[in-house]
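so im writing up the methods section and need the LLM class flavin-dependent oxidoreductase record in one place, dumping it here so i stop losing it
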Amino acid sequence: MKKIGFLSFGHWTDSPQSRARSAADVLLQSIDLAVAAEELGADGAYFRVHHFARQLASPFPLLAAVGARTSRIEIGTGVIDMRYENPLYMAEDAGAADLIAGGRLQLGISRGSGEQVIEGWRYFGYAPGEGETHADLARRHTEVFYEVLKGEGFAEPNPRPMFPNPPGLLRVEPHSPSLRERIWWGSASNATAVWAAEMGMNLQTSTLKNDETGKPLHIQQAEQIRAYRAAWRAAGHTRTPRVSVSRSIFALVNDMDRMYFGQGRQEQDTIGFLDENIRAVFGRNYAAEPDVLIRELAKDEAIAEADTLLLTVPNQLGVDYCAHVIDAILRHVAPGLGWR
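--- predicted struct ---
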């Protein structure tokens, strides 16, 4: 059994071929898709976060809106770039959105991905300290955010406050007590997966990974997940962690599916560079008739290791088609693999 959700990059463009022509389109359609996915029986609605791009950016208004329109489905991100975040203000936003959703947020956070602008976090007012890298900046912000989510007081109260204070040091409000257990680290390397386990965060893996061994993506990710779980056990955490894998999977069940995805594009992993120094392996797409998909996905070792699968959806093709993509996997593929 697996939890199965969708992951939307939230692209928009004014192209006539796109169903998402503006920021308003993609935000409102994201809410509608989450509602549709819940009605279909999917388990999660997740959204990417990219700054300076015609994509979804500030996640918390969207997460709160989805939380208000749904009642069961998990609502998450994959991922929030922590280089850009004020950890305390983020804790307030996250706490509010989680309370609106009734404790259903699953926040994926990380260093982020390749950027639209050079060192974009500097425009947001943040910079690495002396001797730090931008990855260190992300982890420093993460450590502050994760500590604040404990809900312990740390701020000295004003002796003459505008409103009465509870006794002792104050925390940021609103506080959601269980949110800390629903924070995920998006990891592209074995080392950061181990760090996430030591911190006590869940693990998100993407459709790409730093190429550390030259093996296929799914094998490298399976090894990464096993290293994460070993580090989790060694750290002595008492709860069971969660692990998600993202994949582009399309069941070809009608002529429209075959037109969009039946042309045999990217059926093998590819190699590229995230920057000048990081060689990455990008995962293949899965697009085939359901019986073929079942055979192919059964060989994906990372999916087998994970408890949660996130299906990337082509949001520019519109809500109805994306809902169809999700439904086709839930109806025609998941039962054959024992996921349902």
